[in-house]
UniProtKB/TrEMBL annotation:
Heme 3 binds at H140. It is a single-pass membrane protein. Heme 2 binds at C75, C78, H79, H182. One of its GO terms (molecular function) is heme binding. This is Cytochrome c-type protein. Heme 4 binds at C136, C139, C173, C176, H177. It comes from Shewanella colwelliana.
Length: 187
């Protein structure tokens, strides 16, 4: 075969045919990426690095573990955003954890988590504060308006008072609710 033929403009295939091939490759690539992103969003994926940490057991033991309502909330429901662009950006941040995983001495041990819990919790809280606890609000849609009859009086009052404030003075869910899935360190 003549190598130079590779670089010559195609005479054999029409532009249309090339376009179709391009689109097919693009679509396949798109779905392959979606699959990968989906696979990287399961609890198993998170726990592959955090496997010796008590995080999953803590979730199961919490109100988010499915005791009363039978809903087990997944890691990504709370920790990863829902919008596709934000999701990708957060994924890239999570992929930085790969570096930490390889370089932090004793990372995947319970001792490490116990010792660094406060610092890690505050990093996690920073994300919730950055978007007004959007992940929480994604499920808890009736906290501020249209509150359910069954909600405790005290909770209704606290939520209503908070909602009355100017948007920039309002607290966000995790300001008042810490440790809803893990043990938030005291002090
Ligand atoms: C490649 C290994 C790895 C995977 C996979 C992984 N993590 Fe982590 N994670 C780490 C490491 C390492 C740290 C500590 C990072 C640091 O302090 O530098 C960490 C810290 C965290 C923190 C606290 C710090 C912060 O920035 O919020 C949260 C929350 C967290 N991971 C949640 C998750 C969730 C949810 C998943 C699944 C979507 C996940 N992790 C998957 C390695 C991993
Ligand atoms: C995937 C949906 C989902 C997400 C995300 C979620 N929750 Fe929940 N939450 C629930 C369910 C379901 C219950 C259990 C309701 C019940 O037991 O009746 C619950 C219960 C609670 C309770 C009551 C706890 C108790 O002890 O009775 C609080 C407070 C709460 N969630 C706050 C939060 C906060 C804060 C966040 C974000 C960090 C959050 N939730 C994220 C679904 C969710
Ligand atoms: C100003 C503080 C404050 C803010 C902000 C706040 N809460 Fe609450 N919330 C409370 C208090 C206090 C209670 C009642 C005590 C309890 O059950 O923990 C409560 C109770 C709840 C309950 C349980 C209700 C029941 O009847 O058992 C849920 C669920 C809840 N909050 C979710 C949220 C979510 C989601 C957000 C963010 C959209 C939020 N809260 C924002 C203070 C707050
Ligand atoms: C209901 C929401 C929710 C679920 C489900 C959840 N987390 Fe968290 N996570 C939080 C919040 C809120 C914090 C911030 C600290 C706090 O309030 O306890 C946090 C903190 C963390 C931290 C920092 C260390 C710590 O304990 O504070 C890690 C690591 C973490 N989560 C990983 C996970 C993994 C892995 C899963 C799945 C097995 C998971 N989380 C499930 C809400 C959740």
């Amino acid at each position: 075969m003549n190598w130079r033929a590779l670089f010559k403009p195609s005479a054999k295939y029409s532009i249309l045919a090339l376009l179709v091939v391009g689109i097919v490759v693009g679509v396949v690539g798109y779905f392959a990426t979606q699959q990968t992103l989906h696979a990287t969003s399961t609890d198993e994926f998170c726990m592959s690095c955090h496997s010796n940490h008590s995080l999953k057991d803590e979730v199961l033991a919490s109100a988010h573990g499915g005791g009363r309502a039978g809903v087990t909330v997944q890691c990504q429901d709370c920790h990863l955003p829902h919008g596709p662009v934000d999701y990708l950006i957060k994924k890239i941040i999570v992929s930085k954890d790969l570096y930490g995983f390889l370089t932090i001495d004793g990372f995947n041990t319970q001792e490490w988590l116990d010792e660094n819990r406060k610092e890690q919790a505050d990093l996690a809280l920073k994300y919730f504060r950055s978007n007004d606890s959007a992940n929480c609000q994604h499920c808890h849609t009736r906290i501020y308006e249209d509150q359910p009859e069954t909600m405790k009086k005290m909770a209704k009052r606290m939520h209503a008072n908070n909602f009355k404030k100017d948007a920039d003075k309002r607290k966000t869910c995790v300001d008042c609710h810490k440790g809803v899935a893990h043990v938030y360190p005291k002090g």
